[in-house]
């Protein structure tokens, strides 16, 4: 059934020519020898966007410059669903007219790149395509996905404002000439971990009204859709084959390949869509998705609150409430705070009830608030101490609305009186940096060449900046010394005690490990250990341990009472071993001692390993690593010597430190080129380009930013491909009649 009517261009033109009334001619018309424009004709359509025209007559005996006809759009309202496609209506009008002696049911052929404004139709059930009219009726869309319309056989540009010649377009949110602020880009990736026990999982929920939905699945699993309308009606589509189809009045384009699936929905979605993935093979699948989600909760300004005074001058304010566009009701503010793009409007303030108070009512007359009566204001208490010294904590405070009278007395009042300015936050995160943690380096070689010995490693307490600091828990500290066994058998009796390391780098590692840095939180700071109390055997070492704090405003260190520092106090005394005494020497084997140390004595006196600076940082930004450079030095000349002169078994372990911790600037993330649109004769290929920011180098997590934040020129999105001529091919022409004489 046809719900929209149209008038032919010829009928409208004839009616317009018969009109005798003319509007008054303007000065411009007289100057250009044109008659005044006639009235506008009836619209060529009653809905869906049509065209109307107006004519004027040339009053000169010669030709006039300019056109004698002008057009405008009209009836820019959506047609009811049962009206059908306007081009399809024009094709079906020829169903009762014979073509080459036969009746056909004609279907429209749309998006003709050569002549989009001719009426080409295809006979249903056949490959027969015929041009049934050289021109479609005015107001017919040139292309199915465009507002451009055919007028007098020519395709005219139409903007989203439905004006001829307008280049205004919709933004990604579907708003004509919008700035993209009514929706947000959602982009992510899902990796399936399905199995026979878990055959299905949810990839992403795409809400009602979303646009430009695109999902790409790579792997053996399959996509399928579940929908739910605003009325609560549920549906499901298994997406079993390639094609375009309607799902809850939303057009879905689905492509199925052996190794991937692609789902596109231009939108806006007419229901809530849930995209799921179903298990189909042992290998995992990955799904990338991107769409524009409408911001359905928006701030709405309220009316003015009651006046703060009944007379003598007061004030009243507006506020803002969070409004759900789908359900048309007010909801909690947290729904609007969910969208960072939502900015709560500031309350408006105005004076009210400025008439003086009557002397008989007992009120004292006051001057207008803006002169002598201060406005109510927010007042806050100091922040509480952070709930955690590191790793992320919370601190809070109390915020209240107060009012000061003319005498300077401050009293609490209702919060709405302060709503002309935003309320200060009452909770905030604090100390969000990671807690210090132990970092163990590689083990040193064993201190013996046979049998049982010891090996050592450097264990540092590293803070969130990669700097050596204090504050790590002693209970979780990895051990720095352990026994080791060299599988080579010893042909002499073993020493009574394991041989202690005598290497200079071990002392350096001890100093690094023992040190601690003063911070703005009171903490125990140990100083260096004293020398061992004995020259041989087992003795003791002592060191001072102070409670200190860094005063940030003066950058000086202050000593505090011991009870001001929390946590266990580091030890101030420990045992030490200075080697065997003379009485014990007889129990050890001098020959084995000479075997271990004697051969190395000359080199130990002259050459040894030392740390000499660090390598360049492995990354220019976002956090990298530097490695300490180990060199063999001549102790006397301090010059670098050949590494073969230093004992290989005494080479210190690898030492690393963090560097270039500042975040990386935004950069362009460039996707791969698509396959060429043509195999020959110059085609096109495209790729995705996004402005991204690297959040974490460890997880490679990125966030998408606006293009203008990437300073370098944006890489090209489209390029030509297959720039070679297509090979010659046969093209059959129509059969011709040949007369044969016999």
Automatic annotation (TrEMBL):
GO terms for molecular function: metalloendopeptidase activity. The keyword Disulfide bond applies. Residues 187-294 form the ADAMTS/ADAMTS-like Spacer domain. The keyword Signal applies. Pfam families: ADAMTS_CR_3, ADAMTS_spacer1, TSP1_ADAMTS, TSP_1. It comes from the Eukaryota. Disulfide bonds join 43-74, 47-79, 58-64. Keywords: Disulfide bond, Receptor, Repeat, Secreted, Signal. Residues 1-26 form the signal peptide. GO terms for biological process: extracellular matrix organization; proteolysis. Residues 102-183 form the ADAMTS/ADAMTS-like cysteine-rich domain. It is found in: Secreted. One of its GO terms (cellular component) is extracellular region. PANTHER family: ADAMTS A DISINTEGRIN AND METALLOPROTEASE WITH THROMBOSPONDIN MOTIFS PROTEASE (PTHR13723), ADAMTS-LIKE PROTEIN 1 (PTHR13723:SF157). This is Cytokine receptor common subunit gamma.
